[in-house]
Amino acid sequence: MSYSTLSLFWGGLTGHRHWRPAWREPAPKAEYDAIVIGGGGHGLATAYYLAKLHGITRVAVIEKGWLGGGNTGRNTTVIRSNYFHPESAALYDLAVRLYEGLSVELNYNVMFSQRGMLVAAHSEAEMELAARQLNAMRLNGVDSELLSRRQVRKRIPLLNLDGRYPIEGGVWQGRAGTGRHDAVAWGYARATDRLGVDLLQQTEVTGFLIEGGRCTGVETSRGTIRAGVVGAAVAGHSSVLAGLGGYALPITSYALQAFVTEPLKPCLDCVVLAPAHGTYVSQSDKGGLVFGGGLDRIPSYAQRGTMPVQEQVIAGLCDMFPSFAKVKLLRHWGGIVDVTPDSSPIIGPSGLPGLYLNCGWGTGGFKAIPAGGWLLAHLMATGAHHEISRPFDLDRFVTGRLIDEGAAAWIAH
Amino acid sequence: MQRFDCPFCGPRPETEFHFAAEAGKTRPVRDCSDADWAAYLHMVRNAKGAVCEIWVHRPCREMFVMERDSATMEVQGSTALRGAP
Ligand SMILES: Cc1cc2nc3c(=O)[nH]c(=O)nc-3n(C[C@H](O)[C@H](O)[C@H](O)COP(=O)(O)OP(=O)(O)OC[C@H]3O[C@@H](n4cnc5c(N)ncnc54)[C@H](O)[C@@H]3O)c2cc1C
Ligand SMILES: [Zn+2]
User: Fold this and answer.
1) Is ligand 1 within 6 A of the CB of residue A345?
2) Nearest chain B CA: its distance from A276 CA (Å)
3) pLDDT at B12 over 70
4) Where are the domains of chain A?
């Protein structure tokens, strides 16, 4: 069933009895041409592009919980490409461009809203760094503007420019914005299912089938499944899989927290990040203020956050927007993110032949889902890197060609 | 707020501590391969469950070994690094 205004209208006239489950619940087959481990956005997008672009449809996505129940369903949905290095710009801007057409591509409204994002600068020196950032972005072909204090005040009237960390201006990316996180997972899931891919939920990968030194399938909680090629996109649990497969990763798992308030009338029409606090905020279409901040600095698989970071993030929000201080918090939660030494992702062979990786997105991989899936699918289908994923290979930790966005683009970890 | 044990100062709030590294890595010999050096610099076990790590208590600046569980966040104990085997 294709979703359209007409089908919705027709459904309205016929008691909405036309709705069907958006995907099947198939039983695992004994063998597939390709298996993708992890039913988050990256895993689902990988399966979609394998089927759509490479014609490989005998594919299974294996998810231990439910689709989009990992970080994809826990993130604060900021989509942007305001990075510094050309390699990152190519990667994240590919994602933004794919997001721009995604609702039509998937026949599913992912609610990508390019409402713009401000990264504040807190001093004259930071304004100079902001100018450097902006020039780097423009050289990389990514839109950006430098806003003065006056322009910031005009654009975001509620923002307090004279708080604990004064705001002198900032970098504005107009094409940045937010999306609907669940819709991205569900949209890819539905479109992938329609191409014949099996989405296996409640199925945990517990080991790799290794024959002649090559990965030829996976052991799961529902039996052994063989595959021509395997890809893994399991975010915070990447090191657990590495332990099972006998390869090593430079990844540390940390909890990252997010918060949402009770719904308010529309009052904030862009995304704002104040690096001095680490706090960033946007208003969802339902009206809730969705906000977050930096990592909990204790390596963790606990999927819940620590109190001191909560306090810091909330204090930051109250300083940035004193008018939000009395708003009630509705929910807060944590996800386990996969942090690399250079704050850039890992896309490439794992070290175990036949197994490819898409991981290390840390606190910022929602924005990259279409590109991450596109690139992992390319690797799995062709056995070779796409030119955009090449710099993100694991071998950069041996050659020393790190892509240090932590230092370059003020990533908060 | 969780409290960790500094072997020198006793139980203190988590905000006073800094995670330094996983314990148990040995620096390779000087003319090792690039891959061995990279493994030493960057690769980690990042285990889910029992972990053994080096932490710093910032007020007293001492480094020590902490054993804890990375899934339950329970702490088993801390021992001073000096004199450790
Ligand atoms: C609080 C928070 C806020 C964030 N905010 C943003 C943001 O604003 N913008 C942004 O771009 N990014 C953000 N991120 C990061 C972003 O959410 C992630 O980088 C991204 O969602 C990763 O997608 P994924 O598909 O790789 O991982 P996930 O969505 O985590 O999917 C991995 C899946 O693998 C499954 N899995 C794990 N082990 C196994 C196994 N052994 N067998 C089978 N399945 C397994 C898990 O159950 C999970 O569903 C945020 C993250 C958090 C936690
Ligand atoms: Zn101490």
Assistant:
1) no
2) 18
3) yes
4) 22-75+182-249+342-399, 113-175+252-339
DSSP H helices, A234-349, are 238-245, 307-320
Q: Residue A241 CA: which ligand 1 atom is closest? A: 41
- Kindly identify the ligand whose nearest atom is closest to the C-alpha of B60: 2
ipTM: 0.96
Question: Closest Cα of chain B to A341: distance in Å?
Answer: 7
**Domain A113-175+252-339: CATH architecture, name and number where available:** 2-Layer Sandwich (3.30)
Closest listed residue to residue A50, CA positions, set A384, A377, A383, A385: A377
**pLDDT confidence of A407, banded at 50, 70, 90?**
confident
Q: Where are the domains of chain B?
A: 3-80
In order, the DSSP letters of A92-155 are HHHHHHHHHTHHHHHTS----B---EEEEE-SHHHHHHHHHHHHHHHHTT---EEEEHHHHHHH
Which token pair is B52?
């053994």
Which CA distances in Å does A352 have to A118, A210, A215, A243?
Answer: 42, 9, 7, 12
Interface test with A, best of B46, B54, B58, B68 (most A CBs within 10 A): B46
Distance A328 CA to ligand 1 centre (A): 27
Tokens 């290794």 correspond to A210
Q: State residue A410's pLDDT score.
A: 61
Superfamily of domain A22-75+182-249+342-399: FAD/NAD(P)-binding domain (3.50.50.60)
- Which pTM value belongs to this model? 0.97
Residue A399 tokens, joined: 């050659």
Among residues 51-80 of chain B, which lie with CB inside 8 Å of chain A?
Answer: 51, 53, 70-73
Does A379 contact ligand 1 (Cβ within 6 A)? no
Take atom 4 of ligand 1 and give the residue whose Cα is closest: A75
CATH fold for domain B3-80: Folate-binding fold (3.30.2270)
By C-alpha distance, the chain B residue nearest A297 is B19
What's the farthest any 2 CA atoms get from each other in chain A? Answer: 65
